Amino acid sequence: MLHELIQTPSIASTYLAEMRDESIQKDRVRFRLNLERVGSCIAWEISKHLEYQSKEVQTPLGVAMVDVLKEQPVLATIMRAGLPMHQGMMRVFDWADHAFAAAYRQQTDGDDFEIQVDYISTPSLEGRTLILADPMLATGASMVRVYEQLLAFGTPAHIHIACVLASREGIDEIRSQLPPGVQIWAGAVDDTLTSKGYIVPGLGDAGDLTFGTKMT
Length: 216
What we know:
Elements: E1 2-4, H1 12-20, H2 28-47, E2 52-58, E3 63-69, E4 74-79, H3 82-92, E5 97-107, E6 113-121, E7 129-133, E8 136-137, H4 141-150, E9 158-167, H5 168-177, E10 183-190, E11 192-193, E12 199-200, H6 206-211
Parallel strand pairs: 1-10, 4-5, 4-7, 7-9, 8-9, 9-10
Antiparallel strand pairs: 2-3, 5-6, 11-12
């Protein structure tokens, strides 16, 4: 199932507009802030689809019945661009467990590339709800590769893929490679993906806009 935030009017559209705007995105601090904000918006929407249980809470005046999460999710993030988005999601799921993966593109021939994963830190994922986030879902290769590596630590019961921007090709890749029932959450979906794997109109390189231009 695909959930696209801009299909429902909300402040998330404003955050996305600022992130796309080449004049506003020069303010690196604001870009990071908006990345956090969109992460929080997506986490809030995901929270509506998790399992809850009733609990008695003692107030100063009596007992209230409230709904609380049945189990905390695991927030997994692909570094480096995913870190501010992770921070935003963590503001919503402040008791969640956390997982991190370092993945990068390694060029092969021409515009072709392979995804390399050289670091993973995660709790057990067996039977858990996994929320795997990366700001840009372009080809989908990074998400798929990291998910495959995470399976060494257990099979999740529920999978949510979260991104700020996605391409149609990336969404199709996730649907074809991940288990049935995976839910994809995107701030917006763009129609074009270049031969080099960049989303158009997109917003540029999220990692460079967040942390500065890298040499490799």
